[in-house]
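Chain X:
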Amino acid sequence: MRHVPASVTELSRVGLFAGLPGETLGRVAEALARQDLPPGGRLEAGFVVVLSGIVRGAEVLRPGTWAVDPGPIAALTPAVVAHCDRATYDALIAPHANA
């Protein structure tokens, strides 16, 4: 599957990313893959942020929420998520999540 990056605009609406400087947010956006999931669509990721819709992993995630190592997630409604592997999360996102 071709990597389609998340958009800076979408990510800036998520609390986790709202305060990031533009250059940093741009790097994060490039690293996160944006994916549309139909109801029942599944995904494995080390980090996932829900941009729209509702998904279930270890817990139900709604727009603007995120999870690290959520296990397999399944879309309960049509959903748009941004995701990456754990190593990318640790390098680019974790330092800001713990700030």
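Chain Y:
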Amino acid sequence: MQQVSTALEKLGSEGGAVDAGQISDLVTQTSNSSGNIVVTLATLVLAGCWLFGMVDAYRLGKNEANRPARIR
């Protein structure tokens, strides 16, 4: 949020037409390396949770398929 705020302030002070390229350049310039590490770590955690969920769903489905059917 701080990066976005800084970029918007800079764009507002320059005036004129704004395109996506300028916004992208400003955000890249204002980003810091510690922020990139946090984003990378969050992405890895999210991917790990997704992978764990996929494996667990497969395992539960396979166990359910091997069970004998119950009659109610």
